[in-house]
Amino acid sequence: MLGAVASLSACQYDVLAPSGWVAAEQRDLLVISTLLMLIVIIPVIFMAVWFPLRYRADRPDLSDYAPTWAHSTKLEYVLWGVPIVIVAILGVYTYIYTHRLDPYRPLDAAEIGTEIGEPIEVDVVSLDWKWLFIYPEQGVASVNELAVPANRPINLRLTSSTVMTTFSVPALGGMIYTMAGMETKLHLIADEEGTFFGQAAHYSGPGFSEMHFDTLAMSDADFDQWVEKARASNDELSRETYLALEVPSMADPVKYFSGVDDTLFDRIRGLCVDEGKVCMDQMMMQDEMGGGGLEGIADKHKYQYDDQRAIDGFGNPIGVPATPSAPAHGHEDGETLSMNSHEGAAHDGI
């Protein structure tokens, strides 16, 4: 028991000691829900101990023994009424907080109740096994370090270059999934300056335990200095640099990039960073227009975006990408198929 207590002393209590408005609202919802459920849990625990003692077979006084007792209307009201009221209250709070804390909903100064600065835009990419943070307005990027000004909303766009995982900074707010080929959004704010722990909260492979980062909340002046430090880097985040960064690695150090390809995040989300790859939005548009037909077969290899990596998440070679398949012009005996022959086969089947 003492060992368990000692181990708990090393735990962090960011959820119950938030440093941002979103996290504080989530804590309040957690506390309210817990207190409401304790209305049922505490009496049940008490009765589980008191009933066996009060009505044990060897008790001295058996005058209250009622073997024919089977029903109590008052007891039924309590047993059903209290849980119904609790569930109704929980439903109201769930509805309110679900809309108030919608991760896609921008933060409102009036609702927060304090003056806040202009929002800062950050694009987040989860890789194997590191985090990439792109600042489109500042034109810089960083690996495994998220710097933000305090008391300013943080508008995050998130995607993944690989498997699904979750982005989480417990002191500032809840977690949200990052998925390849998709974009999610999250809005946070840091109420105070400080360094807050961030992590991937969803298992994503052997480097998962090292996939964490520091969130640096600082003053506007300090943030400007951080941006200048990033701009002083000799590295630029081009598409070629990103493809090298995308190679699976563990426990990567913090790294800065002084320039970022303006289209990089959209290409990461569209799974088309590689030269010659067709982006997902273009694929969907072509599908909506009826497809590429026979003329599109020559470009088939550009659509196989799952084959764009040379190695998998464990560093093993994936193999040679699939080659485009040629259109079939006939049977094995060399007979040419025509549209009429297909139509005839269809009519024969009818």
UniProtKB/TrEMBL annotation:
<dbReference type="GO" id="GO:0042773">
    <property type="term" value="P:ATP synthesis coupled electron transport"/>
</dbReference>
<dbReference type="InterPro" id="IPR006333">
    <property type="entry name" value="Cyt_o_ubiquinol_oxidase_su2"/>
</dbReference>
<feature type="domain" description="Cytochrome oxidase subunit II copper A binding">
    <location>
        <begin position="117"/>
        <end position="229"/>
    </location>
</feature>
<dbReference type="InterPro" id="IPR036257">
    <property type="entry name" value="Cyt_c_oxidase_su2_TM_sf"/>
</dbReference>
<keyword id="KW-0449">Lipoprotein</keyword>
<protein>
    <recommendedName>
        <fullName>Ubiquinol oxidase subunit 2</fullName>
    </recommendedName>
</protein>
<keyword id="KW-1003">Cell membrane</keyword>
<dbReference type="GO" id="GO:0005886">
    <property type="term" value="C:plasma membrane"/>
</dbReference>
<keyword id="KW-0813">Transport</keyword>
<keyword id="KW-0560">Oxidoreductase</keyword>
<keyword id="KW-1133">Transmembrane helix</keyword>
<keyword id="KW-0564">Palmitate</keyword>
<dbReference type="Pfam" id="PF06481">
    <property type="entry name" value="COX_ARM"/>
</dbReference>
<dbReference type="GO" id="GO:0005507">
    <property type="term" value="F:copper ion binding"/>
</dbReference>
<dbReference type="InterPro" id="IPR045187">
    <property type="entry name" value="CcO_II"/>
</dbReference>
<keyword id="KW-0812">Transmembrane</keyword>
<feature type="domain" description="Cytochrome oxidase subunit II transmembrane region profile">
    <location>
        <begin position="7"/>
        <end position="105"/>
    </location>
</feature>
<feature type="transmembrane region" description="Helical">
    <location>
        <begin position="29"/>
        <end position="53"/>
    </location>
</feature>
<dbReference type="InterPro" id="IPR034227">
    <property type="entry name" value="CuRO_UO_II"/>
</dbReference>
<keyword id="KW-0249">Electron transport</keyword>
<dbReference type="GO" id="GO:0004129">
    <property type="term" value="F:cytochrome-c oxidase activity"/>
</dbReference>
<dbReference type="InterPro" id="IPR002429">
    <property type="entry name" value="CcO_II-like_C"/>
</dbReference>
<keyword id="KW-0472">Membrane</keyword>
<dbReference type="InterPro" id="IPR008972">
    <property type="entry name" value="Cupredoxin"/>
</dbReference>
<feature type="region of interest" description="Disordered">
    <location>
        <begin position="318"/>
        <end position="350"/>
    </location>
</feature>
<dbReference type="GO" id="GO:0016682">
    <property type="term" value="F:oxidoreductase activity, acting on diphenols and related substances as donors, oxygen as acceptor"/>
</dbReference>
<keyword id="KW-0732">Signal</keyword>
<dbReference type="InterPro" id="IPR011759">
    <property type="entry name" value="Cyt_c_oxidase_su2_TM_dom"/>
</dbReference>
<dbReference type="Pfam" id="PF00116">
    <property type="entry name" value="COX2"/>
</dbReference>
<dbReference type="InterPro" id="IPR010514">
    <property type="entry name" value="COX_ARM"/>
</dbReference>
<dbReference type="GO" id="GO:0009486">
    <property type="term" value="F:cytochrome bo3 ubiquinol oxidase activity"/>
</dbReference>
<comment type="similarity">
    <text>Belongs to the cytochrome c oxidase subunit 2 family.</text>
</comment>
<feature type="transmembrane region" description="Helical">
    <location>
        <begin position="77"/>
        <end position="96"/>
    </location>
</feature>
<keyword id="KW-0679">Respiratory chain</keyword>
